[in-house]
Amino acid sequence: MSILKTIQSPADLKHLSPTQFPALCQELREQIIGVVSNVGGHLASNLGVIELTVALHYLLNTPKDKIVWDTSNQAYAHKLLTGRREQFHTLRQYGGMSGFTKREESVYDTFNAGHAGTGVSAAFGLVAAREQLAQKHKVVCVVGDGAMTAGMTLEGLHHAGGLGKDFLVILNDNQMSISKNVGAISSYLNRTFTGEFYAKMREETGQLLGKIPHIGQDMQKWARRAEELAKGAILPGLLFEELGFRYAGPIDGHNFEHLLPTLENVLKMKGPVLLHVITKKGLGYKPAVENPVWFHACPPFVRETGAPAKKAARPSYTQIAIESLVKLARADKRIVAITAAMCEGTGLNIFEKEFPDRLYDVGIAEQHAVTFAAGLATQGLRPVVALYSTFLQRAYDQVVHDVATQNLPVTFCIDRGGLVAEDGTTHHGAFDYAFLRHMPNMVVMAPKDENELQHMLKTCVQHDGPASVRYPRGLSLGVTMDQEPKALPIGKGELLRDGTEVAIVAIGVPVSHAVTAANRLEAEGISTAVVNARFVKPLDQDLIVEVARRVRYVVTVEEGCKMGGFGSAVLEALSDGGVTDVTTKVLGLPDWYIEQGPQDFLRERYGLTAEGIYQSVKELIGKTPAFSREKFTFASSADRLPHGDEQGS
Fold first, then answer.
1. What residues have CB less than 8 Å from 327, skipping those under 6 apart?
2. Is 474 left (phi over 0), alpha (psi -120 to 50) or beta?
3. What ranges make up the beta strands (E) of 63-164?
4. Is residue 499 within 8 Å of residue 529, measured between CB atoms?
5. What confidence score (pLDDT) does residue 179 get?
6. Are 56 and 264 in contact (CB under 8 A)?
7. From 244's CA, which of 316, 366, 535, 615 has a CA 20 to 30 Å away?
8. Which helix H or strand E contains 584, and what residues bound it?
9. pLDDT at 532 (0 to 100)
10. Of 166, 349, 186, which Cα lies nearest the Cα of 272?
11. Which CA distances in Å does 50 have to 142, 253, 614?
């Protein structure tokens, strides 16, 4: 009989014997592997944290007691144990269950998070609120070892340790985050238990105790417990003790005989406590154990083999971008690349293979990555910072203060620009056009296809100032590539076709959709121009104004937020150019957080496909009814509202 099917809430765990927990964990693994193999998601990290999740919900009184999952892509077992088993097959699907914790989804989800490093600060906010409201409950934060490289995590630990309130932080240490962990803190945590002296001492002590008649086995068990306490007095604990935390561990995060009593004890301790738990990423599924990086956030795969369910027909924009960067780096030794614990995700592992000494992985520390790049640039190098759009948000001030104000030649490769599908709200790259275009000295560009992408990369690295090139998640268009990249004239767009009634001014991925829409309009006798702007900043005002003066309607298209984005820049250009006799419409993402869902579906939903652009133009010129989102199924009633918080890696 299935144990998991008897669990409707964490309260049901308390009716089980701990001897049943290993079987329950196996069921949880089977369920997670089965669903993720069908829909994709974060597999390796979730398989590694199952025993810890069961232990926490068994010992705590949730939802009165609070668990905050840092990043929260490790919370699949948590969802299965908190009344969402029947909906688990909808994981990361449009209208279904989020791949992250989501307060709107369950009372057991105490904080929404998709970025690493937020957990400790958020959880300590819950601690402080508890004290202010004179309440009595436990607050636990589960944070991965990779997030220990995030400055915000250390800031939160520093604050919490200084105030001394009851607070448990569990360090889920699987010796890696997404990419291999880097830096002094990672080495600090790991080197203690891997040294030859320590290993030899452990082995010899165990053999000696085992030879003692009658009590040898018991002595070995007590020695293992003593060993765990002793290790807390060596190197790893010192860091946290100095921050004001009592340190316990490390303990085996998959062994309930160690995990349950230790966790029960630390939950009784007063003040800030850090429990160091060692786990194995991907445990229970051999392909994920052998390749935890790929299975960190994987597409659907064949369960029996772990191979991707579908092979890509064309290279991705990410691959094209980094292969172009490698080509440029061969000719220019000033080029160095920087990633923030996303070497594989940003494609920089390709760069690292050829130029291992010119690749810097700074860990989950985007702010440091940008200012580090600024320092490199002051000495004549040409640093390229490759980040997802959503993660660049974390380094906004550093881009302004440390790069743009000094007009330093730092290139920003902004991956995952626009809609990113099932990862949802926290990962859609909706805001980069808007928050970069108002910075003096910054050049902001986006290619219409992969061939233009390679030219824009060369434009960036040759520019004597800060420049960004933004490209989407997903496969390239399959256009013919020029043999060599060539620099484009800064601030010059491209007139793809002329027209006398409508002008569609587009940037990035929507350009190809705009061309298709224009061809259809032209076939109906509506003369339509298409401008590939190429640059959000500096915008080609001369070209746009020139085209606008010979048409009656101007429509802008971008896969980014409408407020303050590319469309706003075009309207400003028309105003500055004295164009007052055209009717305008801005197409882009609305003023709410976009939900999870397939990339093409979301583009259709928000009118950013050829069909959507065509319908919007027809509506604008009064030849068709208004485009309606009502034909789509809504995830929730809040989804209809401008302020609907639609949380969705």
1. 454, 484, 485
2. left
3. 66-69, 139-144
4. yes
5. 46
6. no
7. 366
8. strand 583-589
9. 98
10. 166
11. 12, 9, 49
Three-state secondary-structure class, residue 210 = helix
Q: What is the dihedral of CA 48, 53, 55, 56, to 10 degrees?
A: 140
Q: Which of 136, 123, 135, 116 is nearest to 168 (CA)?
A: 123
Q: Read off the pTM.
A: 0.83
Distant-in-sequence, close-in-space partners of 111: CB < 8 Å, separation ≥ 6: 68, 69, 72, 101, 103, 118, 119, 122, 123, 126
* 537 DSSP 8-state letter: E
Our CA angle for 37, 43, 45, nearest 5°, is: 175
Give residues with Cβ within 8 angstroms of 486, minimum separation 6.
455, 458
Give the pLDDT confidence score for residue 203 in this predicted structure. 55
Q: Which residues pair with 537 in a beta bridge?
A: 444
Identify the pLDDT of residue 186.
45
Backbone angles phi, psi at 104, to 5 degrees: -70, -15
What is the model's pLDDT at position 297? 83
Regions of the chain short of the pLDDT cut 50: 177-179, 181-183, 185-199, 201-202, 228-229, 231-234, 629-649
Strand-by-strand arrangement of the 66-69 sheet: 66-69, 139-144, 167-173, 272-278, 246-252
Report the side by side order of strands in the sheet with 382-388.
359-361, 335-339, 382-388, 411-415, 467-470, 443-445, 535-537
Helix, strand, or coil here: 561?
Answer: strand
E-strand ranges in 509-576 read 528-532, 535-537, 553-561
CA-CA distance, 369 to 382, in Å (whole number)? Answer: 14
Torsion of CA 464, 318, 614, 598, to 10 degrees: -140
Cα distance between the two ends of the chain: 34
The per-residue pLDDT for 150 is 83
With CA atoms as reference, report the closest residue to 519 among 437, 426, 434, 610.
Answer: 610
Which domains, ranges and CATH numbers included, belong to the chain?
A: 18-290 (3.40.50.970), 317-470 (3.40.50.970), 494-640 (3.40.50.920)
- Using CA atoms, how far apart are residues 250 and 277, in angstroms rounded to an integer? 5
SS3 of residue 337 by DSSP: strand
- Structural element, H or E, at residue 249: strand 246-252
The backbone torsions φ and ψ at residue 585, rounded to the nearest 5 degrees and listed phi first, read: -150, 135
User: Cβ–Cβ contacts within 10 Å for residue 265, how many?
Assistant: 12
Q: What is the pLDDT of residue 151?
A: 84
Active site residues: 281, 366, 394
- The residues, ordered by sequence, that sit 6+ positions from 190 with a Cβ below 8 Å of its Cβ are 175, 181
The predicted structure's pLDDT at residue 635: 39
Distances (CA, A) of 73 to 28, 114, 170, 607: 16, 7, 16, 30
